[in-house]
Design a protein that fits this description.
This protein is an alpha/beta fold. 33% of the residues lie in helices and 22% in strands. It contains 22 helices and 30 strands. The strands form 6 sheets. The chain has an 8-stranded mixed β-sheet with strand order 1-2-9-6-7-8-11-10, with helices on both faces. The longest helix is centred in the last third of the chain and has 18 residues.
């Protein structure tokens, strides 16, 4: 296989079946990460540095600095140098001569600290690294112990295991920074929720409730500090081995399996031999073997080293002793972690919508036992935020690097339960963050596709999903030409706005050109985010409008129901009424559902609520747009009244990894009518809302405009002035109730005779 660069060869490592005395039907395999160019940490180095370059955090030619005494240093050296960066490695005297020679040969500058500080060698190295950062402005520090890109690198390893084996029952891995085992586990558990995970540590490591003993001899696993990337909530069991046990198992791995490895792999091998005999029949067990044995030739494989450190005087247990977590151990022992797993409690919201469901979602998260955190660039835009009890973090939510920096500075990744939003504009950012943190979520590329309607149109066209004829244009002249080909009347709209903003039915070429020019003149949207710089010219799909509400669970899209929509008369498309469930014949509803599932699959949406708008034209349904979030316009509340399904609660649960409850029972007909101004003017008063609320069947009346506001007939969803929600037994009854309630409400203007 040919590669343009050595770092392109990282990954796709061998998977071999081990010859072990195993229970019936038990298969034990080793993932030989040692066959990366240097070792397993090559994956981490590549992922971290490429992500930093993608986000603009690592500038071309800028220095890279990292603290490491082993394979992480080699990975950073390999990838950093091949990408053209100076590389500085901070290490300590325990670094083996072979690794030191390799680093210097690769062109790195190696800084060796002279002595331990208050917390051992790790803290001494970090103190030197901080001084180095001050000396090298613009240097990038990957921070392997706290950077979520460390565990994120192992999504690729998990994909390789699934491709090779189809599934894994038990995963075993050594623990140092926590990245490899926790990252692989999170990715595998999305496909195998019952995966059992065993961590392997060394006696004298402080990672799992043991006293730190800096004199321990093992390297590549264990730690004197508690790394942020170690997430105990995803592990089931931990084993500890002392130096003699780990070194002896490493030698036996070479002799018995012909795998010349380091003591990390030897420790994993010891536990694999035990599990091979004790797990349930028919189980598939996989161990991750991190590094090869070259750098251990004068330690693990050296009789003189054994004699010098009197390793034969240490106890070697034949089988592990089970202990209560927190019990100090001196030889092979194991403890269950299920009773000590910390709960993930913080739920991040990236901005919010400014209507009811936004603040409601924050309150709901707290009611469900989570600590809501709102990441926002302007907290003042959210009335009622103070009443939610949410922690507020002010940061630049338009910048992914700024969002990531804000999260890293304030939170440990293992403390985070999920990331979500109730705003259209931020679903790509949420997808980026959830992927980065290893939390439930959608692929970022799918979210970008759905947010950019031009890209979505092109994606659906390639997949053969029915939609209006369209053209993507970047100037007014191209818009006029496109309208001539598509035919008039046509619809002209921005590629990436929301709430029917600037969506216009155009009847002539001058109107098309003027509206395209208006759209393209806007460089930022209402949230200050950059616009796509494109407009869509589309065939006018003349027919009734519906939205299909779905909820995705790992790519399986469950139908919540279909909503019938009534929009204002052209040239604008402002939703005036919703009925749920839509009064449709069964075959028509099934046809709508089929096309929406095809569209979601084509777009790559896998997870969570979606709100897909469809028009039913003469020859069948066509997709108008996919919104990868809950329906707006209070549709979730109408669904709750009609079926008992609280979709907002299910969104919060799904975002935190809990299975959503999507059972539904249509017991009522729900409807919502929006209040709109019949003319432009300054509002003096709103009369009759209390009488409207007393109409039988009305659930609530909400007026969202205050006296003194300038109002006009709505041109988009933001121009609506309130709503009425009602329920009944039949659709015609709901409409009758909504009519009666709306007749009670009167908008009084300042120029009215009183």
């Amino acid at each position: 296989m040919f590669f343009d660069s050595l770092h392109d060869s990282i990954g796709a490592t061998p998977l071999v079946r081990l010859r072990l005395d195993a229970a019936e039907g038990v298969e034990v395999c080793a993932k030989l990460e040692m066959y990366n160019p240097f070792a397993m940490k090559d994956r981490v180095a590549r992922h971290m540095l490429l992500e930093a370059r993608r986000l603009g955090i690592l500038k071309p030619g800028a220095p890279v600095i990292e603290s490491s005494s082993g394979t992480m240093a080699l990975g950073i050296a390999l990838v950093g140098r091949s990408l053209g960066h100076p590389v500085h490695i901070v290490t300590d005297p325990r670094i083996d001569p072979l690794t030191l020679a390799k680093l210097r040969a690769l062109g790195c500058e190696v800084h060796v600290v002279a002595r331990m500080s208050s917390h051992g060698w790790q803290s001494a190295r970090l103190e030197r690294l901080e001084r180095l950062r001050a000396e090298l402005p613009g240097a990038y520090w990957p921070r392997q112990y706290s950077n979520p890109d460390n565990p994120g690198a192992y999504r690729a390893l998990a994909r390789e295991l699934v491709a090779d084996l189809g599934g894994v029952d038990v995963l075993v891995g050594s623990v140092g920074s926590g990245g490899s085992l926790c990252g692989t586990t999170r990715a595998l558990r999305r496909l195998s929720p019952d995966l059992y995970v065993v961590g392997v540590d060394c006696v004298g490591s402080a990672l799992f409730g043991q006293p730190d003993r800096p004199e321990r001899l093992q390297s590549g696993l264990g730690n004197s500090l508690q790394p942020d990337n170690l997430d105990l909530s995803v592990l089931d069991e931990v084993h500890w081995l002392n130096d003699r046990e780990a070194f002896a198992a490493t030698r036996e791995l070479a002799r018995e399996q012909q795998i010349f490895a380091g003591n990390t792999s030897g420790s994993v091998y010891q536990v694999l031999r035990h599990l091979a005999r004790t797990v349930e029949p028919g189980r598939r067990v996989v161990g991750i073997f991190p590094d090869r044995g070259d750098r251990y030739f004068d330690t693990v494989y050296s009789p003189a080293h054994w004699e010098r450190h009197r390793l034969m005087e240490l106890e070697r247990a034949e089988r592990p002793r089970e202990v209560v977590y927190g019990t100090e151990v001196r030889s092979w022992a194991y403890a269950s972690l299920r009773e000590v797993r910390p709960a993930r409690r913080k739920l991040l919201f990236v901005e919010s919508n400014t209507t009811g469901t936004g603040m409601q979602a924050l309150r709901l998260a707290r009611e469900l036992g989570f600590e809501p955190v709102l990441l926002t660039d302007d907290a003042t835009r959210y009335p009622g935020l103070d009443d939610t009890g949410a922690e507020v973090v002010v940061c630049d939510t338009a910048s992914l690097p700024a969002l990531r920096a804000a999260v890293r500075e304030r939170f440990r990744a293992p403390d985070l339960a999920g990331v979500t939003t109730t705003s259209d504009f931020y679903v790509p950012a949420v997808a980026e963050l959830s992927t980065w943190l290893g939390l439930p979520g959608n692929p970022a590329e799918a979210m970008r596709t759905c947010r950019d309607k031009a890209r979505l149109r092109e994606t659906l066209a390639r997949a053969g999903v029915r939609q209006p004829r369209f053209a993507v244009v970047r100037d007014a002249e191209a818009g006029v030409t496109a309208a001539a080909k598509i035919g008039l009347p046509c619809v002209v709209k921005p590629s990436d706005d929301s709430g029917s903003t600037d969506v216009l039915r155009c009847t002539g070429p001058d109107q098309v050109g003027a509206h395209v020019a208006r759209i393209l003149s806007r460089t930022v949207n209402g949230r200050g985010l950059p616009t796509a710089g494109t407009a869509l010219v589309e065939e006018f799909a003349d027919g009734p409008e519906y939205s299909v509400e779905m909820f995705g669970v790992e790519g399986h899209h469950h139908l919540v129901g279909v909503t019938a929509k009534t929009v204002t008369g052209t040239p604008y498309f402002v939703e005036r009424q919703h009925l749920f469930p839509a009064p449709l014949p069964g075959p028509v509803a099934e046809e709508l559902t089929r096309i929406v599932r095809a569209a979601l699959s084509a777009a790559g949406v896998l997870f969570g609520p979606t709100h897909t708008e469809v028009r039913l034209v003469e020859d069948g349904p066509v997709i108008i747009e996919i919104n990868p979030r809950l329906a707006g316009g209070m549709i979730p509340e109408v669904i709750r009244l009609a079926t008992g399904t609280a979709l907002l609660e299910q969104q919060v649960r799904a975002a935190t990894g809990e299975p959503p409850d999507l059972a539904r029972e249509f017991t009522r007909q729900g409807g919502i009518r929006f209040l709109m101004a019949e003319r432009a003017g300054r509002l003096a008063a709103v009369e009759g809302a209390d009488r409207a609320a007393e109409v039988a069947g009305v659930d609530r009346v909400t007026v969202t405009v205050r006296p003194g506001a300038d109002v006009r007939p709505a041109e988009d969803a933001y121009g609506r002035l309130g709503y009425i929600i009602a329920t009944a037994e039949r659709p015609d009854e709901v409409e009758r109730i909504l009519d009666a309630a709306e007749r009670e409400i009167r908008f009084v203007y300042e120029d009215h005779e009183r």
